[in-house]
């Protein structure tokens, strides 16, 4: 059952009744009474009486804007005329089916309700956008918005304190932003909405305020761009073929949802931004794309991350992002982070995530081979390095293993091996003499191995590293 609340009535669809005098009651419960029951059984104690003095208006394609709009027989022709008649509100405007070619601007507490035969039948269509700039509350239900080219779907601006609720509505965009929210004092609650973005335009641009989406579907467009002090929350639903970018102190929370992005990055987290994921799947379907990048704060629980290149971008080095994983988390993708390399701080609950690289090489005789090269990147900082190295010689057969533990630093342009590298070696007798070391070259750290005379050795290296800046 859907309820809409305004400052003076409760609209409870399916339970609006006429009493014996022809007056309308809203909020009455107990089922639809028969005509014979009305005079005897109709309980008015729980309802709100709607009379000619109540601020309720009708809009119909057969109406006339010269009418007062107070009854269906005296309905307005346009939604804008009904809004004007409603004045400062609060008011309810009931819109009959049809296509209304107009942009809607709400500057007072008005509820727009499309009259329908079922919850999912959006049979009121507005060929225009919706602008909300008011003090108070507004509700919009059961309307299909199809703005013309260049017209924003929902615009919330100004300095007023406002809450807008949008339920069972479609927004199909054409060369324009779907939702544009710029006011820190405005809250937008969307329930069961579908927003189809336009290529070349942001699906959502928000620099302030709060957006909450319950079981909605967002599809297409460029990105959902959050910045300033904006807070965006989503419970359930699907975000398809669009990603998020967060800047400044913006906050993103997704619970039991799915983000399937066709962009380069599904979620990009700015340095001072924060993302919380609970029971959520994040997929990046773009070739070479990443599920999550950035340097902000990520908090997750029971999350699946998958990207075609890396689940969490290689450039997103541990130490530059604050990680707080809880519960079971699955990370899928080439060069993805692995839960085996979490280092937890039991006192704070914070987690440092270490990345690893693997590579192979070969030595023939007592020569060197640079098996693996790690680029330290353009950010000045330090690394802890731990290399696990294994060599195999097939004629013996024989194996040898080496473990290197050391440190390195970079200026962002040049690397240096720091301190004495710890080294453990174990091998079959025929491989006595194998060794390995870290070598600084340019802005790289190289894992270099040395073979033994007259033997061909195949090598594999796994280098785990943790970065701090």
Give the key terms.
469 residues; mainly beta; Pectate Lyase C-like; 51% strand
Q: What does this entry look like structurally?
A:
- It is a single chain.
- The chain is mainly beta.
- The chain folds into 3 domains: 1-54, no CATH class; 57-353, Pectate Lyase C-like (3 Solenoid), CATH 2.160.20; 356-468, Immunoglobulin-like (Sandwich), CATH 2.60.40.
- The chain contains 2 helices and 48 strands.
- Strands 6-7-10-13-16-19-22-25-28-31-34-37 form a 12-stranded parallel beta sheet, covered by helices on one side. It has an 11-stranded parallel beta sheet with strand order 8-11-14-17-20-23-26-29-32-35-38, with no helix packed on it. A 10-stranded parallel beta sheet has the order 9-12-15-18-21-24-27-30-33-36.
- Strand 39 (342-344) and strand 40 form a beta hairpin.
- The chain starts with a strand and ends with a strand.
- The model is unreliable at 1-53 and 313-354 (pLDDT under 50).
Describe how the helices and strands are arranged:
Elements: E1 3-5, E2 10-12, E3 17-18, E4 24-26, H1 35-41, E5 48-50, E6 56-59, H2 79-86, E7 91-95, E8 98-100, E9 104-106, E10 110-114, E11 124-126, E12 130-132, E13 136-141, E14 143-145, E15 154-156, E16 162-167, E17 170-172, E18 179-181, E19 186-191, E20 194-197, E21 204-206, E22 210-214, E23 217-220, E24 223-226, E25 231-235, E26 238-240, E27 243-246, E28 251-255, E29 258-261, E30 265-269, E31 274-278, E32 281-284, E33 290-294, E34 297-301, E35 304-307, E36 310-312, E37 322-326, E38 330-332, E39 342-344, E40 351-353, E41 355-364, E42 368-375, E43 381-393, E44 398-410, E45 415-427, E46 435-441, E47 444-450, E48 456-468
Parallel strand pairs: 6-7, 7-10, 8-11, 9-12, 10-13, 11-14, 12-15, 13-16, 14-17, 15-18, 16-19, 17-20, 18-21, 19-22, 20-23, 21-24, 22-25, 23-26, 24-27, 25-28, 26-29, 27-30, 28-31, 29-32, 30-33, 31-34, 32-35, 33-36, 34-37, 35-38
Antiparallel strand pairs: 1-2, 3-4, 4-5, 39-40, 41-48, 42-47, 43-44, 43-48, 44-45, 46-47
